[in-house]
Amino acid sequence: MSDLHDHAEEYVPRKPSKGIYVLPNLFTLAALFGGFYAIVMAMNNHFEMAAIGVFCAMVLDSLDGRVARMTNTQSAFGEQMDSLADMVSFGAAPALISYEWALKGVGRWGWVAAFVYISCAALRLARFNVNTAVVDRRFFQGLPSPAAAALVMGFIWLMNDMGYQGADVVWPMFVMCLYSGLTMVTNVPFYSFKDVQMKRSVPFAVIVLLALVIAVINIHPPIVLFALFMLYGLSGYALYAWRRTKGLQTSVISTSTDEPDEQGLHK
């Protein structure tokens, strides 16, 4: 009996392993599938469906974080999963699709534009991950990768809808990839909409305005969506210029970093 008693005292139950929250990661996986679907559609020359796949990934990507916060299911795993999914849907997919649609017609120059875009997307996501704690949450530091993907894919969708082939607009596609990619790694501030609280009540007019926006988009999605994201893609430079003329701080870094080597890089 004493031996049994000793063994019972030595036994230490294991702590239950931490699980993975299903709901927010389900949205992330769905967004990842949107990017994968877009690549597959482009491989089969269905570029309009490829653009729709990326735009669907954008909608799902905008929901996973909000769902996690609203249900209190945030996790480090979810953050890493979201970044990896973004790299596929908004980094690799637009670069590969734009190359397949138009850029391969100019040889190595096409490689340059596509690689600049995908490398800037990777740098943008990495910088976002390490600067989360120091950036003013009201703004993004550089163009967010979903918006950059919307510019590239929106251009392809619009041109394809107007009857243009990739070979007809190679250089505009080249410029669009470079602009979208390089804008992602600038320090230009872009409004993040993160201060919009979904749980708060809003005036009735706001709901009417949202209904009107949906109706306008439905008139002709390729034109309206591309125009909206083109305006957003230029808005950061307009805000930067306005702040400069007013003598206001242009950096979105709200507190200094602890790394001495990074001091002065975000002004």
How are the SSEs placed, and which strands pair?
Elements: H1 2-10, H2 22-43, H3 47-70, H4 76-101, H5 108-130, E1 139-141, H6 145-161, H7 170-184, E2 189-191, H8 204-219, H9 221-246
Antiparallel strand pairs: 1-2
Structure write-up:
With 267 residues, the protein is mainly alpha-helical. It has one domain: Four Helix Bundle (Hemerythrin (Met), subunit A) (Up-down Bundle), CATH 1.20.120. Helix content is 67%, strand content 2%. It is built from 9 helices and 2 strands, in the order H-H-H-H-H-E-H-H-E-H-H. The chain has helices at residues 2-10, 22-43, 47-70, 76-101, 108-130, 145-161, 170-184, 204-219, 221-246; strands at 139-141, 189-191. Helix 3 runs antiparallel to helix 4 (76-101) and helix 6 packs antiparallel against helix 7. Mean pLDDT is 84; it is low at 255-267.
Proportion of residues in extended strands: under 5%
CATH superfamily: CDP-alcohol phosphotransferase transmembrane (TM) domain
Using DSSP, what is the number of strands?
A: 2
The computed structural class is mainly alpha
Tally of DSSP helical segments: 9
The CATH class is Mainly Alpha
Sketch the major β-sheet: 2 strands, antiparallel
